[in-house]
Design a protein that fits this description.
It contains 11 helices and 12 strands. By secondary structure, the protein is of the alpha/beta class. The N and C termini lie far apart (about 90 Å). Mean pLDDT is about 90; it is low at about 1-30.
Length: about 350
Amino acid sequence: MRTSRRRAVAAGIALTAALVATLAATALSAGAASPKKIRIAYFAPLANTYVQGELRGIAGVLKKDKNVELVKFDTGFDATKQFNSVQDAITQKKFDGFIVLPLDSVGLVPAVQQAIKSGIKVVNADTPLGPSQSTLAPQVAGESGSVFDPWTMRGDWTGDLVVKACAGKNPCKVGWVSSVSALPAEKAFQYRANGVIAKHSNIKIVATLDGGAYTAAGGQKVSQDLLTAHKDLDVLVMVGDQPASGAVLSVDAAGLTGKVKIIGGAISDISKPLIKQGKEWGSWAAYPEDEGTHAITILLQAIRGQLKSPKGISPALERTRKGQSPLITKANVDKFDPQYAG
């Protein structure tokens, strides 16, 4: 009798233990199957093809991470609209992280500080966030990451391209077409390019216009105006490869193909064949997909508590360390794979 009771008690204990283990396993399984949804807001001029390249980089990461929702806020090239969009997203209280492409590097800081204070992780991409245009490390206290190729560095590259294009020409007359000259990044870009150019007495910048607007149509219109006033140009600098493709049309219409060397920036699918054909003389490298990949990776690490310290990354410098030149001309364009349509 006692033996039977003992067996019954033991069986009951074993059944209870098995039931507890099963319930625990079920709870763990349910928890693993449905982790908290991560929501990220992305602020940028969405119609811009460079931005679309960056979004492809982000999408490549999120394809493997199904538990993340990306909400895009189209700011155009309006810094005030971007500031307001960031503030609106904060008040919605549903986002874990922000990726911002600052249109006003300094002016956007207060909105980002407000986001960080609200517990939102932030990474800036494409342009810096803060007063320095050359500092890669995050400049805002509490920010998780900064991913961009400094426009100061890009300005140096443009200056180097101008020097190469003007080799053996004295005087070498240069025209300059900005896209959005009021942007802090463009101001720093032009300043650094001018610094390189100023060291060469044979090079003269004879005209500067604004309005390329990072579009082919904008580049065509403004370059046409510039060429009408300065038919004796040797080099035409266009800030951006979309405007450069428009300048190719203007130069051709003016009968100056082969006489005016066009320099673009951020080589794309459009400009690669133009460089191969000799219609665009050169450009500098840009990696929007790399930017997107690095930005979303850092942000997710920060949100999940895996980021040990803030990160600052230049995709172009990462590539340069691997032996890839940032200066693209007909001599090496075949080795370059563009990361956006242009």
